[in-house]
Amino acid sequence: MVWYHPINYNFKNDISSLIGQKVAFMENDALKELKEAVLARISPRTEEEAYLKEIAELLIKKIDLIACSMDLKDVSANLVGSAARNTWISGTHDLDIFIMFPGDASREELEKKGLIIARKIAEESESFEERYAEHPYINMRYRGFDVDIVPCFRVGSAACIRSAVDRTPFHNEFIKKNIQGLEKEVLLLKQFMKGAGVYGSELRTQGFSGYLTELLVVKYSSFENVIRSACDWQPGTYIDLNSHGTIQHEEPLVVIDPTDPKRNVAAALSLDKFCMFIDSCREFVLSPSLYLFFPRSVTPLDDRDLFHKLKSRGTSFIAIAFKTPDVVEDVLYPQLYKMELAVVALLEEHEFKVLNKGSWAGQNTVILMELVSATLPTLRKHRGPPVWVHKHAESFKAKYIAAEDVFAFYIENGNYVAEVPRKYPNACSLLKERLTSCSIGKQVSSAAKNGFKVLRGSEICGIHDQSFKLFLMNWPNI
Amino acid sequence: MVWYHPINYNFKNDISSLIGQKVAFMENDALKELKEAVLARISPRTEEEAYLKEIAELLIKKIDLIACSMDLKDVSANLVGSAARNTWISGTHDLDIFIMFPGDASREELEKKGLIIARKIAEESESFEERYAEHPYINMRYRGFDVDIVPCFRVGSAACIRSAVDRTPFHNEFIKKNIQGLEKEVLLLKQFMKGAGVYGSELRTQGFSGYLTELLVVKYSSFENVIRSACDWQPGTYIDLNSHGTIQHEEPLVVIDPTDPKRNVAAALSLDKFCMFIDSCREFVLSPSLYLFFPRSVTPLDDRDLFHKLKSRGTSFIAIAFKTPDVVEDVLYPQLYKMELAVVALLEEHEFKVLNKGSWAGQNTVILMELVSATLPTLRKHRGPPVWVHKHAESFKAKYIAAEDVFAFYIENGNYVAEVPRKYPNACSLLKERLTSCSIGKQVSSAAKNGFKVLRGSEICGIHDQSFKLFLMNWPNI
């Protein structure tokens, strides 16, 4: 997870001076000005909006014509997502166009014919690729837009969907109906979440989805009200607009889907992103500021300064580097997070103490571990049975006293102790020898098996990639 | 505690080859020969015995005469201890002579007049000093003997003693009556315990006293029977020759005093010395050997080899050295052991991991600590409250985010974490600054306060004292 938390950026003094004296930030002129300043930067301009509308309509018309030409009378295209709801931020040119098949169409027909239509459209694109979720769909660059063309079933209600994407049109309807007049509040909240590093429900970020953001605005009626309420959120916060939830959920935030009583819209939100949002909301209440929406970008340190910054921590850094496998981020990141945990477990099993962990992926992938120390004593105290447990004690003693490489054998607190050679006194050797036996995800595992390097200290700063340098600079805020 | 455990001395192969096949060591010729070989070295020769008797009788006579001349008709001298019971090892020339005052004498009279008599005797000694236990007494060098002259009360039974030493004459009577014919067995057992490093009940050793050794022989009838029985001892082993014990005892070995039902004669025996004895007894059963009675002495390594031996462990050694305070061992060692624990607690409070500890005292005293590492990261992760505990979280954040020296501030598993500078990243600095605030014994504390050094690594091997070198060589078997 890469996030830039506002606390990195010089707010220290503002906050500490304001703590305790809650700023009455609601509905005053300064806040109004601040919101306007934010909106001035993120609201789509009239011509931007018109262009988006034009392209969307054009694509929908083309799809409908192709469907018609294929004699698919009940198939029609539909614009969904933020573009359809006027909740998109200026500059983000995403279009989600769904090709809706009848609810009783066969899965085979949907997949086959859906793809035929989508491919035809894609012929006119600058570039495209076929992607696979539950069904195949097409993602393309088209006249400055990032367009997803997704076949789905038109079902009676979100509770009886046949595929995960079938839910989207229902979300679209609900938001379109309920968000009118609140679109600007959604824009503000989305931008605020981006600033806090918690926007995006993909598996890399584990933050707030666009739909979740919109539901929060529907629930609380305004950007400010969401912020103010979130300051007091606790794990288990429960929001159910329709009061129709039927299932117990364990996630820190539960927002029941108004179109599906069983579903928690915030299921992908991690505890830490939940907390980071609360933290940022409190910052805003204390000191509303443009920087919370648009964090200052950090000027990367040069190699030497970066090295000294890391060195000043007095810890040991170890990196595992390998070629990034060719998979989408939603496949890659869960495997990297799993790998982090497996590496920590391996290190801790051998008594290395891990302070912080993180991963970064560019052309290469780096799993970075920060240890109290990358070396341990040559020996290890192996505690045996109490001396008075006759049989066990005798065989323990016989085993270790005969061993050539035992450093010492003695009695401590009634137990035999054999000081035996430590198998891995060096964390690098441990990782080099044992990494591939770790339980890590399929693609990452095979990428690592094709060859990985274990780097230490200054070697790590030698990885030449500006994005990696930024990752190091923000460490351990990753 | 300094001990030389037989397992240090090359028995490895003997034992491992014999394990599992119990050697029938009882009453065979080899064992008989072994016992005779041991006794040949430790039984007092006839002339040695005669000389001891002569000196003892001479001193008793002198005391009686002095008492008489002071008109103390009910005061008389009495030889007690191993010299009185023929259970002393050749070469150990200790005499314990008790000046027995009537049971109803005043404490003042005993102390005053007892000391007058003792001082008169001491006038003829080569050297002497007044020592203090519950009462003052005199220790002197007298014609090759180490003589204690101890005033005590002659009471009706050991249960109604007025001072701790009053018990000794009762022990003397009991053993004299019950040990006849078993004196050689006692000699063998004492020497065996010396070989195992468990003989001596002083606070430095925390092993078996002479009286305890004698009681074990009375209980089990022979050296071999003690050895065989001890192989299966467990903590809580209970021996009560008179079946008259009245009190629950918590020590690993309980041997009720035949002259005092409330007293555990083995109260001073530590768990580890108890276990070391069991361990040595099992060694003897597996492979009876002269070396168990007389461990080979170790040739000290030269400084370089010693340094390399310690270095090869890959650990960090830190020593605290100061001038040994001028107190008897029974005062010194408990304070040193207390200091070891206090130093370990101080180090562990600051996250240093102690592998082994020990102390040595010659002209200087050295408390030695072996650490996983003597240095730790410059920073320390300080975990704050969960972010959702609004008030606590806010004040934690305000405190640390404003601090100039905070390395990083972030959220981890729902909690705020501040990476703050570690106060003592170096164990040496910690000890230098904080040692004198440790809870350590009075004399040792003031000795340390008068000036101590903290030594590391090679500096430790630079302490020039053969006995200290031996202490290092056997490390961590101290």
* Tally of contiguous helical segments of chain A: 18
Query: In percent terms, what proportion of residues of chain A is strand?
Result: 15-25%
Q: Count structural domains of chain A.
A: 4
Helix percentage range of chain A: 40-55%
Anisotropy-based shape of chain A: elongated
Secondary structure category of chain A: alpha+beta
Rg of chain A, nearest Å:
28 Å
Number of strands of chain A: 15
> Could you tell me the mean pLDDT of chain A?
91
CATH architecture assignment name of the largest domain in chain A: 2-Layer Sandwich
**Superfamily at the CATH H level of the largest domain in chain A?**
Poly(A) polymerase predicted RNA binding domain
Ranges of chain A with pLDDT <50 over ≥5 residues? 1-23
Report the top-level CATH class of the largest domain in chain A: Alpha Beta
| Chain oligomer state | homodimer
CATH topology of the largest domain in chain A: Alpha-Beta Plaits
What does this structure look like?
The structure is a homodimer of 478-residue chains. The first copy, chain A, has 18 helices and 15 strands. By secondary structure, chain A is of the alpha+beta class. Chain A has four domains: 46-162, Beta Polymerase, domain 2 (2-Layer Sandwich); 179-293, CCA tRNA nucleotidyltransferase, domain 2 (Poly(a)-polymerase, middle domain); 303-375 and 425-474, 2-Layer Sandwich (Alpha-Beta Plaits), CATH 3.30.70; 379-421, no CATH class. In chain A, strands 1-2-5-4-3 form a five-stranded mixed β-sheet, with helices on both faces. In chain A, helix 2 (29-42) crosses helix 7 (183-196), helix 7 crosses helix 8 (210-220) and helix 7 (183-196) packs across helix 9 (223-230). The longest helix of chain A has 24 residues, at 46-69. In chain A, 40% of the residues are buried. Chains A and B meet through helix 1, helix 10, strand 12, helix 14 and strand 13 of A and helix 1, helix 10, strand 12, helix 14 and strand 13 of B.
